[in-house]
Write a structure and sequence with these properties.
The chain is an alpha/beta fold. It folds into two domains: about 260 residues, Aldolase class I (TIM Barrel); about 70 residues, Non-ribosomal Peptide Synthetase Peptidyl Carrier Protein, Chain A (Orthogonal Bundle). Bound molecules: flavin mononucleotide.
Length: about 350
């Protein structure tokens, strides 16, 4: 690889990432992907190495406060899941503030406010990206949030609602004054959804709008070169990787190796099977046999990645106990590579069509 693209290790933006009082060992974070970046996945990927901060899927403040079981599952964590933040959203200010206090009282060390979700069911209630349309409302909420808890508060947002309302730089500037510890910026507008490519100039405008706090760039990073390019082009202090980490969970390790100028190698089949085993086992550990059901949507991805024949992929999908899973492993070890790998395009569907209908 082209090592000239590695961010300068002597620059102010080298070394650990500081988010308020938190010191994050790597500048490459896992971007939340609701339905995918659950605790077992976060743990499995962290075990590979190189990962900085991980953030939970977005968590509805009201559900968190009502003790909703699925929401409690979303915020479940273990010491090996550190450093992590919980991402909250919701249209009601009081509930968001209470949820933040609840999280701090329960030992969580970072709270991330979702200001980027484009989904109508979330923006319709005034949450997600909709908050970006009301600068003073967003600032009031963020200021109250920062004053409610002692742990660092971060915000994840898009460039704005649409290209006529690119509010992210102005908001980032205000949020810093209000005490926000870091901003993650997905370089698309709400209107764009997941279409088009990420706007690095837009990310750079946010970097330039703040004085000191780290801005974490996000969007379309699939390779080590993409990650370094985003940092160099935009000056962002770190990068958050979502879909790229599903495509290649080894991406954080590859970045770490590149930074240390260590030769990169692809994971061996045994390493990939180990990852599958860790992921499945931890799903089962957290959710019991329901974990097997939750695992179904990953079967196609593992099937592609390991190149296992369709019948075996199907048995992985239908597997309903840990014992059954363990009987499949020797067969996967024996039959991997029999099917041509397609690398996981099927795994993750992004919302499509006019985004007013999402
Ligand atoms: C299926 C899916 C679920 C997502 N869930 C969340 C979420 O819960 N919270 C959030 O802030 N962003 C969420 N995002 C947005 C991603 O975190 C990220 O900003 C976006 O996918 C662009 O980055 P990427 O190209 O690295 O994936 C989601 C994206 C997808 C595709």
């Amino acid at each position: 690889m082209d090592t000239t693209r590695i961010p300068d290790p002597t620059s102010a933006d080298a070394g650990p990432l500081k988010i308020g009082s938190r010191v994050i060992p790597s500048r490459y974070n896992l971007s939340p992907l609701a339905g995918y970046t659950h605790l077992p996945f976060r743990r499995a990927i962290r075990e590979l190495g190189g990962l900085g901060l991980a953030t939970t899927d977005l968590v509805q403040a009201t559900f968190l406060l009502s003790g909703n079981k699925r929401t409690q599952d979303l915020v479940a964590t273990v010491p090996a899941d550190q450093p992590m933040s919980v991402q909250i959203y919701g249209g009601q200010r009081t509930q968001l503030l209470k949820a933040a206090r609840w999280l701090e009282d329960h030992g969580y060390q970072g709270i991330d406010l979702n200001m980027g979700c484009p989904m109508a069911k979330i923006t319709g209630q005034g949450g997600g990206a909709r908050l970006m349309c009301d600068e003073s409302g967003a600032c009031n909420l963020v200021g109250d949030l920062v004053n409610t808890v002692n742990v660092p508060v971060t915000v994840k947002m898009r460039l704005g609602w649409d290209r006529d309302q690119l509010t992210a730089p102005a908001l980032a500037h205000e949020f810093e004054q209000l005490g926000v510890a870091a901003i993650t910026i997905h370089g698309r507008t709400r209107q764009q959804g997941f279409h088009g490519s990420v706007d690095l100039d837009g990310i750079r405008a946010v970097v330039e709008a703040v004085e000191k706090i780290p801005v974490i760039g996000n969007g379309d990073v699939r390779t080590v070169v993409d990650a370094f390019h985003m940092r160099q082009y935009t000056g962002c202090a770190g990068v958050a990787i979502g879909r790229g980490a599903l495509l290649d969970p080894w991406i954080f390790l590859r970045i770490e190796r590149a930074e240390q100028q260590i030769a990169d190698t692809d994971p061996t089949p045994d390493e990939q099977i180990h990852f599958l085993t860790r992921h499945f086992t931890m799903m089962h550990e957290q959710h019991g046999e329901y974990g097997c059901v939750m695992f179904r949507k990953f079967a196609a991805w593992y099937g592609d990645r390991l190149g296992i024949p369709d019948d075996l992929e199907d048995r992985l999908r239908r597997c309903s106990t840990l014992e059954e899973f363990h009987t499949l492993i020797p067969e996967i070890r024996e039959r991997h590579g029999q099917r041509q790998q397609q690398f996981a395009t099927a795994l993750l569907k992004v919302p499509n069509g006019p985004n007013a209908n999402w």
